[in-house]
């Protein structure tokens, strides 16, 4: 066979791979199937500080709802069309072929025409702890959907939130999109942090509205008594989770995943359970903000380092590249962004860290049970 024919055959197989459906798996302890619902919420009491046109602040959220009895499953697009096209263009710079994000799916519990997406039965669970998630600056909430689905499958209600103008793109249910703006100066970062923190607190207040709860979690009720809410964030989202907990006593615990700390918490500290998770070489020794806040954390606290991880190892991207068969084909420079931990393994590590923390907080307020599940992950270093 001529070299040109061989090349054509390889390209044909490659095109088939990218154009085929690729399903991101649930990892970790799968106790439940999960339904996913997305919609927008508008805070009528607050103007959007980035819009400059007098509009009220709106956010887009995804709810991950565990169900014990899923009557039917379906494949659901990993992200809606405009967002997938945007991400394809963005990540082509990292070597991902065109069509990568358009080919991705999640296996979910099918929504039904009546109120409940998946019947959980009259005697099923009705009240579960709630985790609210905020992603990195310039990053869509949807880049974390597989990880959050796995957290929900372990038995937690999960909501992720997109923060318009500081996310790279936010696609509203009506197809309207808002692309991100440059947020670089200290003033801009402070505004983004405060806006994110207010978005998270606004979202948590909506759980007092039964109609909102019904849309996000049909068949389930978030535990609101005795502070059964956790705030989790990656990068700037981690700093926002800490700031939201500082200002909202209903938040029992928070996790900052690989994020530099900003804002009032650096002086005020926190009095509830808090965990720092860093990529390799991101610790108190290398991040002054972590060193500053550590002695001010008066509740249960933990600092962990994940060897082989880089900043975006804590998104779905390593798993995406593995599922698409790309992890060993990308430019070497990508390792600086995604790390060198195999995609499934990295997803298992992150889900184990998050669910172990949530389990210890909501089962034992001392946090004393944390870490039993992590012995099988030598990549995770207990720093402090």
Automatic annotation (TrEMBL):
Gene3D superfamilies: alpha/beta hydrolase (3.40.50.1820). Its EC number is 3.1.1.47. Keywords: Hydrolase, Lipid degradation, Lipid metabolism, Signal. InterPro entries: AB_hydrolase_fold (IPR029058). One of its GO terms (molecular function) is 1-alkyl-2-acetylglycerophosphocholine esterase activity. It holds the Pfam family PAF-AH_p_II. The keyword Signal applies. The keyword Cell inner membrane does not apply. GO terms for biological process: lipid catabolic process. Residues 1-22 form the signal peptide. This is 1-alkyl-2-acetylglycerophosphocholine esterase. It comes from Amniculicola lignicola CBS 123094.
């Amino acid at each position: 066979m001529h070299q040109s024919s061989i090349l054509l055959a390889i390209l044909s197989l490659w095109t088939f791979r990218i154009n085929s459906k690729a399903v991101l798996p649930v990892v970790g302890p799968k106790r439940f199937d999960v339904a996913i619902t997305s919609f927008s919420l508008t805070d009528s009491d607050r103007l959007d500080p980035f819009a400059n046109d007098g509009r009220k602040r709106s956010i887009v959220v995804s709810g991950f709802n565990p169900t014990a009895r899923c009557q039917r499953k379906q494949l659901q697009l990993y992200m809606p069309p405009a967002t997938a096209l945007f991400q394809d263009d963005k990540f082509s710079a990292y070597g991902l072929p065109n069509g990568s994000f358009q080919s991705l799916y999640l296996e979910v519990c099918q929504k039904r025409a009546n109120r409940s997406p998946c019947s959980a039965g009259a005697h099923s669970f009705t009240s579960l702890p709630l985790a609210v998630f905020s992603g990195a600056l310039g990053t869509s909430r949807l880049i974390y959907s597989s990880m959050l689905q796995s957290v929900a499958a372990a038995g937690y209600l999960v909501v992720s939130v997109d923060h318009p103008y500081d996310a790279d793109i936010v696609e509203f249910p009506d197809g309207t999109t808002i692309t991100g703006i440059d947020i670089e100066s200290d003033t801009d970062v402070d505004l983004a942090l405060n806006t994110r923190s207010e978005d998270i607190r606004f979202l948590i207040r909506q759980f007092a509205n039964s109609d909102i709860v019904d849309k996000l979690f049909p068949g389930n009720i978030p535990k609101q008594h005795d502070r059964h809410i956790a705030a989790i964030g990656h990068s700037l989202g981690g700093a926002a989770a800490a700031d939201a907990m500082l200002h909202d006593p209903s938040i029992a615990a928070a996790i900052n995943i690989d994020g530099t700390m900003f804002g009032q918490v650096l002086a005020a500290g926190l009095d509830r359970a808090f965990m720092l998770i860093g990529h390799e070489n991101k610790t108190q020794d290398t991040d002054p903000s972590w060193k500053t806040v550590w002695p001010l954390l008066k509740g249960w606290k933990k600092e962990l380092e994940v060897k082989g991880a880089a900043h975006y190892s804590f998104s779905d991207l390593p798993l995406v590249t593995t599922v698409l068969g790309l992890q060993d084909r990308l430019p070497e420079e990508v390792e600086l962004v995604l790390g060198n931990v195999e995609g499934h393994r990295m997803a298992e590590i992150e889900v184990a860290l998050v669910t172990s923390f949530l389990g210890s907080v909501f089962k034992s307020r001392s946090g004393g049970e944390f870490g039993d599940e992590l012995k099988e992950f030598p990549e995770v270093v207990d720093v402090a």
